[in-house]
Amino acid sequence: GNYNLLRWGRKPRPDTVLDESLKGLERKWRIYHYYLPAAHVLIGPGGLYVFVVKPQTGKISCDGKRWKNKLTLGRALLFFGDESLGNPPADLDFEMRQLARFINEKRPDLSSALMHGAVVFSNEKAELDLKNPTIKALKPKQMKQYVRAPAGEGGKYLNPEHRRALVELFDQEVARIDGSASFVTGTFGMA
After folding, report:
1. Which of 27, 76, 114, 182 is most deeply buried (CB count within 10 A of its CB)?
2. Distances from the Cα of 79 to the Cαs of 6, 73, 171, in angstroms?
């Protein structure tokens, strides 16, 4: 019902927002939508990136771990059809733990792969007021800069062999779910 409507029926769709925001990344990046234990996973030189996409509009405030989405008259009229903000830090933590568990079960030798996460507010009408957030919160226009930054800031990169092995693992999972080895992910290529 609502779960599929929010995933596939809402425009713009979360996967489309992420693909458009990351368009132009080098060939060393690949994104997977809805095939892995985390809904949106990007893999590249800086490691694995898990994204939780939130479609909320209006003023979204954060003070540490507390998040609020101010209720306006327009939102009140749509209240029952709108997805709640929920708990972005807990949502992101859950998805990251699920992906880490999957990797550890399938390939324990890759369980130490660098993993990053962010909540992406996909609606351009979202106004973020962030005070001491415990997680990274982004608008779509900030995503490319974010995924390129970890390697540059800390000098840490995902070993190219590990990156290829993770892509192979993820591709196998997609093929298992799809029943074939040919599939489409939002891919930017793979070197």
Report:
1. 114
2. 14, 10, 39
